[in-house]
Amino acid sequence: MVKRLVIANLAIWVVGIMILQRFLLPNNVIFEYFALNPARFGLDFMLWQPVTYMFLHSPSNVFHVVFNMLILFFFGMELEQRWGSKFFLAYYMVCGVGAGLIYTICLWVYALLGGDQGLLLTNVVGASGAVFGLLLAYGMVFGERVVYFMMMFPMKAKYFVMIIGGIELLTVLGSGVHGPVANLAHLGGLVSGFLFLVVYGKMAAKRRAGRSKKGRRGRNLKLVVNNERSEESDSDGPRYWN
Description:
Elements: H1 2-24, H2 29-34, H3 38-43, H4 49-52, H5 62-83, H6 85-112, H7 128-141, E1 146-149, E2 153-156, H8 157-175, H9 183-220, H10 227-236
Antiparallel strand pairs: 1-2
Helix pairs in contact: 1-5, 5-6, 5-7, 6-7, 6-9, 7-8, 7-9, 8-9
């Protein structure tokens, strides 16, 4: 599943954005309809945008798509091996969609409280929200693994996740929702991933507890055979043939 997601993202970026968008399609039509635009999502009911935006990347910054796909590949492969393809895809989509929705809701609240309403017209693209969710999951599942922060400083994965989460939070608190990078969406991916894993973990624990209770009740049941009745019935022979 990870490889398919990487191929899909790269194919959309190369064919859809770098070729079709630049040379064949009307001006900016792909981003107009499929990027996440809080105003168009809320007012024009383009409800598909929290899904489609995560498969689009900036045409002017190749590192945007390259870094996201590298993180998706290297961190996602181990998570998929641990979870399986179906659960991994569900988690990835929840993080990406959740990041987009949290970003959109926060911008609408900010605008309604008197903030810059022009931000509602800003297009957001990229798999970064989903990717940050993967980083969180990696830190929770493989917390003792050693990773390299900024490719130089070795540290345990759980501390790595804490650091990048802290950086994103401080960036949002410092610059707010302004700036060229949607750090609020990155935080949204972390929050969505954490809530998903916590809720799923509690549901799984309840299911295991229910199965355990059923097993204990089953062990207390006894099979009683009335041999005398069986012998009387056998002596008369069967009454009906099926």
